[in-house]
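Possible regression after last week's pipeline update?

I re-ran a chain I had predicted before the update to compare outputs. Posting the input and the new output here so someone can diff against the archived version. Not blocking, just want to make sure nothing changed silently.
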Amino acid sequence: MPIPFEAPILTSAAMREAEAACAVQGTSLSELMESAGAAVADTAWRMAAGAPILILCGPGNNGGDGYVAARLLAERGAAVRVAALAGPATDLAKAARARWSGPVETFDRTTKPAPLVIDALFGVGLSRPLADELAAMLRAFAGRHILAVDVPSGADGDGAADWTPPLPADVTLALGALKPAHVLLPAATACGRVLLAPIGISANKTMRTLPATRPATPDSKAHKFSRGMVLVFAGPMPGAAELAAAAALRAGAGYVVLDGSERAPFAAIIVEGEEKFGERLDDPRVGAVVIGPGFPAGDDLLFDVEAALDSGKPLVLDAAAIAAALPRLAETPRRAILTPHEGEFEKAFPQLYGSKIDRAKAAAVRTQAVVVYKGADTIVAAPDGRVAAAWPGSPWLATAGTGDVLAGACGAMLARGGDPFDAAVAAVGWHIAQAARIGPGLVADDLVRK
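New output (post-update):
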């Protein structure tokens, strides 16, 4: 299910603003609909490969896109039928329907399927779940090739509601920009392969998908400390911190110190006792401190988190260290990355609402730190509103210890200096790329081996 690299993501409100801006600049909404319908027709033409096509049209502008596609496909000689749930209800949809010269069937339980079914019923404008009767009608087309226009009908385009579309798509054609539903569960799994069709709008990339993974190559003047020195502090379960330390070294740090452990995962990692932690925090060469992996909540963790905060060093806070640091995080601006999974996020930020993107953004503003909200649909959010979505990641990362590896990778990227958001995005990309390289049977230790 490939998602384009660095593709813009717009909410339904932002999409309406972008369309309005186009109208001000001289591109009418009817021209945008014509472009959208043409993109649907092109995709359907390739998918159908000469087979008959059924287009399901709704009353809104998503249905209007369907009528445009039907006209253009018929002009190419395709065997295309249109079935409407209701008559067009917007001026744009009415105009598109008027230009379609073929018959329009009533979409009901008697509607006969076709090898390719185009879902142009509702798109991103849906404000409530589909009625049971309509959902059952759509499920009747399961097993056919399905092309969804913008989002599969029944999905909340903004990803705030957990509605599951009754008819998953083989291909979803995103118009102008991706929508949150394309990168957030549960809707993302129903979108199939997501393609992005430029239709003439200008979409900013404040919210976007991950960039392509490009390992940073040290320049000719690089040395171990210029590549970043990372200090990882181990708690009562040192194996987690050892994974984080190994990941920091493997992800590109030039020097890694592991405090509080008795063993080194690699010979190149310096192992020191807990008593050295304070001294290392004073070391000006330390570019990032990782604390939290394998460290349960308690007074010992709180003491060490306070020391790390007092040091002023850039921080990667994982697991219980996130909640421990919350009271002070926003007090003084600092370069920090938080890496909570779902349970840790809910514990640290229990009263945030909206989509996963909305909640990650709110947590980033509250803490003035970059938040890596982990999961199959990982979201990276910065306090200034920037967001990167990492769907799809790798299902093989759903195993113990991989979050510790990600924390270490964040430490490596952060220790180089620069923007914490870019560091977190690079770490997430590295993490997913490592998992993709390894594939089936992955365990966390594999991620830090060559």
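Follow-up from reviewer: compared with the archived run. The chain has two domains: 12-206, 229-447. Marking as no regression found.
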